[in-house]
Amino acid sequence: MPITPFHFGLGAALHGAAPRRVSFRAFCVASVLIDLESLHKLLRQRHPVHAFLHSYLGATLVVLATLLLFLLLRRWATRLPNLLGWRDLKAGAVTLGAALGAYSHIVLDSIMHADMRPLWPFSQHNGLLGVLSLRQLHLWCLGLGALGLLLIAARRLLRPR
User: Fold this and answer.
1) pLDDT (tens digit, 9 = 90+) per residue, 51-89?
2) Domain residue spans in the chain?
3) pLDDT in tens, 127-149
4) Which of 22, 41, 69, 129 is the most buried (most CB within 10 A)?
């Protein structure tokens, strides 16, 4: 399923552990951008569904696109509302969040999708396929999401007022 929220569990945990260093928003944007390719392929009934953007090379371009989008928005979209504090994000946190979101997306999808070629164009091999069952993978993602929510809630509760 494209644009799966299961990917976001890891992002929540990473952001919960290092909120000033890892942008959860950038993590999610990069992950969604990657899956737009799969959504397009599914709608057009084309295969493989997981193609260029589902490689580390493609993910690297998504990281750069996410950072560029953020920088352009911050520079030119000053009239947009500052929903979720996006204007306060630092470029480093956006870059790290996007990189973690994009590369972890490739890892997670490599575990569960047979058409993944993460090392393309250098190799057609996917050594991660099946290292966890789909159930195990989803439980890990859900568990990390719960951990992330707990960390975020704890930080807010313990924050001096």
Assistant:
1) 999 999 999 999 999 999 999 988 877 777 767 676 778
2) 5-158
3) 999 999 999 999 999 999 999 99
4) 22
Q: Which two tokens stand for residue 20?
A: 């000033």
Asked whether 98 and 30 are in contact (CB, 8 A), the reply is yes
Question: Among 133, 116, 1, which Cα is nearest to 59's?
Answer: 116
Q: Which two tokens stand for residue 150?
A: 């707990």
User: What pLDDT is stored for residue 159 in this prediction?
Assistant: 84
In the predicted structure, residue 36 carries a pLDDT above the cut 70: yes
DSSP single-letter state for residue 153: H
Q: What is the reported pTM?
A: 0.91
Distance CA 134, CA 112 (A): 6
CA distance 28 to 118: 19
Task: Output the six-digit token pair for 2.
Answer: 């494209």
- Mark 137-160 as b/e (b = at least 16 C-beta within 10 Å): bbebbeebbebbeebbeeeeeeee
CA-based end-to-end distance of the chain = 42
Question: Using an 8 Å Cβ cutoff, are 142 and 2 in contact?
Answer: no
CA distance 127 to 104: 15
The DSSP symbol for 94 reads H
